[in-house]
Amino acid sequence: MNDPVRWLDDSKVADSVRSVLAAAGPAPPMPQAVHVSMVAQCAALAATGIATRAAAGGAWAKLVSSSIAGNIGKGLVVASLVSAAGTTGYYVFREPAHSSSALHSAAHQTSQARPAPSELPILPAAAAAADEVVAPATSSDALRASVPRKTKEADTQGESLVVEPTSSVTKPSVAAFDDPTIADEAKLLENARSVLASDPARALQIAERHAQLHPQGQLTAEREFIAVDALLRLGRRQAAWQRAQPWLQRAPNSLYSKRLRELFGNDGR
Amino acid sequence: MPPSQPGVAEIYAQHSEFLWKSLYRLGVPEADLPDVLQEVLLVVHRRLNSYDASCRLTTWLFGICLRVTATARRTVRRRREQPIDESAQEPMRSDSPSPEDLMVARDAKRRLESALDYLEPDKRAVFVMFELEGIACAEIAEMLGVPKGTVFSRLASARNTFLQALVRLDKIDQRKSLAMGGH
Predict the structure, then answer these.
(1) Which residues pair with A80 in a beta bridge?
(2) Considering only the top CATH level, what class is B1-81?
(3) Whole-angstrom Cα distance, residue B179 to residue B183?
């Protein structure tokens, strides 16, 4: 059976109908900022298994903060998880608050009528259930309310919620979105993660390769998580512990730290 | 997970455009696409183990898009209810056609979107792919993992609903126009 004639090509169809169909534009292209956010989130999901673990707990989980990492020694990026039913998931980049408009205009070019993602309220239930929100810088009062003490203390330099902000984290975040290497980063880390169980030495090797290729990479957090996991699997507990220290000390209540401690806990038994 | 099974990052890298377009075809407003895509990726990640390669990956992904969209549909509909003012606020570019042409084009687009909103998600997707994007039925069938006959029947049903929706929208517009004292 052949396809029917498309209405647009069918002169028997009323002009009024065809003119309506002709008004359709092509599907909108994905904004680069959104693409980068999704790549980062996929990498975070793959590296930490966040969604899987949260799902096991029966809660609907959403990664509200992508983990675009700066230098592990300077900036902090922590993936944050909100468990709540019925919240609108959204993505928040770590960024200085003053540059958020640039990001949001890029991510939501056609949605001026809507609030930018970071302005969307988190439902009280979600805020209460939120893990420490360190990464996203936002002026949202709702989000601010969900930030624990430690982060609030760091919130003295204006609106940024980034712990220990340094010059490296206050550069305009938009630059990160023009960086095409983030897909390479994600791919590399995905490779590392896929061999983590079967060949942790190889996974570590790939993680180190990531460190060489992307010393200022945006997925540093995921890389370090994989590296620590690989070291533990190789029985190099001391090395793993040392490697995890910067994270554990800087953001002890963060999701990454919790996951790291779980790794050590499991390994220690 | 064995290396042969793709992870969410790999799936996204290969199918980001498919996912984005599928959600758009299913009627997710452009402004909501990032949120809904994020939700889809979470589901993909959580259900990776349930993908058994007995169907095409795109079929599996489309199924997820369909379910996520169906859940969010009520919200989506609600948000769609005031599209006129939004478009009226769009800034005019200097290379644009005349204001009259623009208004006609905007009105047609608004009618299209409103009429599409009357369609069930799976039928809407078929309608959009066939009528608006010109994808052959066989290809649509393969993408969605359904027989070609199902695509035909969904298309026929969608066409009916679409025409009825246009008639209904005409009546609503006429009523509004009368209420405002216009012609």
Answers:
(1) A65
(2) mainly alpha
(3) 10
Residue of B nearest to A43 (CA): B9
Indicate yes or no: CB of A63 within 8 angstroms of CB of B38: yes
Contact A119, B40 (CB under 8 A): no
Give tens-digit pLDDT for B139-176: 899 888 889 999 999 999 999 999 999 999 988 888 88
Instruction: Say how far apart CA A138 and CA A156 lie, in whole Å.
Output: 13
| Residues A163, A168, A173, A175, Cα dihedral to 10° | -160
Measured between CB atoms, which of A35, A55, A110 is closest to B31? Answer: A110
Q: Which CATH architecture has domain B97-183?
A: Orthogonal Bundle (1.10)
Q: What is the pLDDT of residues B40-85, one digit of tens each?
A: 998 898 888 888 777 788 888 988 998 888 776 655 555 554 444 4
CA–CA gap between residue A257 and residue A206 (Å, rounded): 22
pLDDT of A138-155, one tens digit each? 333 333 333 333 333 333
Interface confidence (ipTM) of the complex: 0.74
Rounded to an integer, what distance in angstroms lies between the CA atom of residue B24 and that of residue B32?
A: 9
Count CA atoms within 13 Å of residue B7 on its CB side. 26
Locus of tokens 């369909």: B66
Distance CA A162, CA A155 (A): 7
Nearest CB to B155 within list A4, A25, A88: A4
Would you kindly state where each structural domain of chain B is located, as residue ranges?
1-81, 97-183
A82: β partners: A62
- Give chain B positions within 8 Å (CB) of A189: 9
Residue A267 binned pLDDT confidence (cut-offs 50, 70, 90): low
Q: What is the pLDDT of residues A86-129, one digit of tens each?
A: 222 223 223 223 333 333 333 333 333 333 333 333 333 333 33
DSSP B91: P
Place of tokens 């090797």: A205
